[in-house]
Design a protein that fits this description.
224 residues; alpha+beta; Ubiquitin-like (UB roll); Translation Initiation Factor IF3; four-stranded mixed β-sheet; 5 helices; elongated
Length: 224
């Protein structure tokens, strides 16, 4: 049984503070809990989310003690402040777990670049297109640049038609995110994938897991 704040035993649960140059002090970004709540009364929410109502701080602290929970200030700007009965250590742990899972699943979209000439031959075009398709299937965006040289600069329609053809050829796996735009000697178009990179990675992981299971089943059958 305790009334004071829990001591958290790992760096994930440590109370982080943010420094501010206001009055030369340090302001905690953590909510006030238990006897750190210095008000005469609070609007109390129970452990199951039920509305208890406005009670004296001593009453709220006693209820937290009897329930072996913490009194946590969740809305300090309210009058009176809103507090909730909860297991603050468990709350911090679950929040840290969710944050770690979010970071684990976070993927940064990469923008690949592919450069083409307006008079590219059919073989080179197919090679470049296959690279672009591979990038899009991996969930990456592709910046396609048509480079004009010499007199080609007076024929921008050549580059535009090439980009239109490319957009039509990859329509099943990608789309035009940024339409062709003349930029000096270059014409640029950005293609985006239909599938997000995170979805691609999850699908690949699922396929790899299924492959491992099939291999294990095959090995068990051989042993039998």
């Amino acid at each position: 049984m305790r009334l004071g704040p829990r001591l958290l035993c790992s760096e994930d649960f440590s109370l982080r503070k943010v420094s501010h140059k206001k009055l030369g002090g340090v302001i905690s970004v953590e909510p006030r809990i238990n006897d750190r709540i210095r008000v005469s009364e609070v609007r109390l929410i129970g452990a199951e989310g039920e509305q208890v109502g406005i009670v004296a701080i001593d009453v709220a602290l006693r209820m937290a003690l009897e329930a072996d929970l913490d009194l946590v200030e969740v809305a300090p700007e309210s009058r009176p402040p809103v507090c909730k009965l909860m297991d603050y250590g468990k709350f911090k742990y679950e929040a840290a777990q969710k944050a770690r899972e979010a970071r684990k699943n976070q993927t940064n979209t990469v923008v690949k670049e592919m450069k083409l000439r307006p008079k590219i031959d059919a073989h080179d075009y197919e090679t470049k297109k296959s690279h672009i398709e591979r990038f899009l299937k991996a969930g990456d965006k592709v910046k396609v640049t048509i480079m004009f040289r010499g007199r080609e600069q007076s024929r921008p329609e050549l580059g535009y038609r090439l980009l239109q053809k490319l957009a039509e050829d990859i329509t099943e796996i990608g789309f035009v995110e940024s339409a062709p735009l003349q930029d000096g000697r270059n014409m640029v178009m950005v293609l985006g994938p239909h599938r997000k990179k995170a979805d691609v990675k999850r699908r690949q992981a699922a396929e790899a897991s299924k492959g491992d299971q099939d291999s294990d089943a095959s090995a068990d059958a051989d042993n039998a």
